[in-house]
Design goal:
With 227 residues, the protein is of the alpha/beta class. Helices cover 27% and strands 27% of the residues. The protein has a single domain (28-222), classed as Vaccinia Virus protein VP39 (Rossmann fold, 3-Layer(aba) Sandwich), CATH 3.40.50. Strand 5, helix 3 and strand 6 form a beta-alpha-beta unit. It comes from Aminobacter aganoensis.
Length: 227
């Protein structure tokens, strides 16, 4: 990451999957492991026809949605996040990269951000990097994370999986049959994630992508065809 001067302000720039992003003080800095998720998302869309529809949930700076829109020509991306700061930064990045014709950023509580857009049952891929550190760990051994980045980017509730539970449940209504759900999670959470996906009774058995240490870090689940 580097800092440049612009209009009297310091603007932080960061590269993610070859894309230069603007960041802000209240926005998560994309981590290297999130590129595992980004590459998985691009790979999943390789088999989709032109005009794939993608939701980028908990979008932060917009890094995942922007990577998909850049690397999958014709993909239409709807991104969303909860806070004013993240949505503003994501929208600036969409403008900087000239992707406003294929990518939009909404503000709201998870899928509630898309109320009225008639996306139900039409989406090929939901991709998400949700917060996954437990509240207790953020108050203790991982408290240093809050020195320069927002709590909302890390706090996953009592067990670190509160957002995952809602994501897995609510994505079902938006995915078309055969559509994909792909999301990041923390080290050691793979068993709980597999149980959450199985409990939804809407997906094929979950598969995992691993990091350099061969630890599962990304879950990939395909929505079943009810027919």
């Amino acid at each position: 990451m580097h800092i440049v001067k612009g209009d009297g302000d310091n603007i932080r720039l960061h590269r993610f999957m070859g894309i230069e992003l603007e960041l802000g003080p209240d926005v998560l800095v994309p981590r290297e492991e999130t590129e595992i998720l980004g590459n998985a998302a691009v790979g999943l869309l390789g088999g989709c026809a032109a005009g794939a529809r993608v939701i980028d949930m908990c979008c932060g700076s917009g890094n995942l949605g922007l990577a998909v829109a850049t690397k999958v020509p014709g993909a239409q991306v709807w991104s969303a996040d909860l806070t004013d700061a993240t949505v503003a930064v994501a929208r600036r990045n969409v403008d900087r990269l000239g992707l406003g014709d294929r990518m939009s950023v909404a503000q709201g509580d998870l899928f509630g951000a898309f109320d009225g857009l008639n996306l139900a049952g039409t989406v090929d891929l939901v991709v998400c990097n949700p917060p996954y550190i437990s509240s207790a760990r953020l108050e203790g051994e991982r408290s240093e994370l809050l020195a320069s980045e927002p709590r909302e980017a890390f706090d996953g509730g009592p067990y670190g999986l509160s957002i995952h539970q809602r994501l897995i449940r609510d994505a079902v209504a938006f995915l078309k049959p055969g559509g994909w759900l792909a999301f990041e999670f923390g080290e050691g959470q793979d068993r709980q994630v597999a149980a959450l996906v199985a409990r939804a009774r809407a997906y094929a058995p979950v598969e995992f992508a691993t990091d350099a240490a061969r630890l599962p870090r990304v879950a990939i689940a395909r929505k079943l065809d009810p027919a």
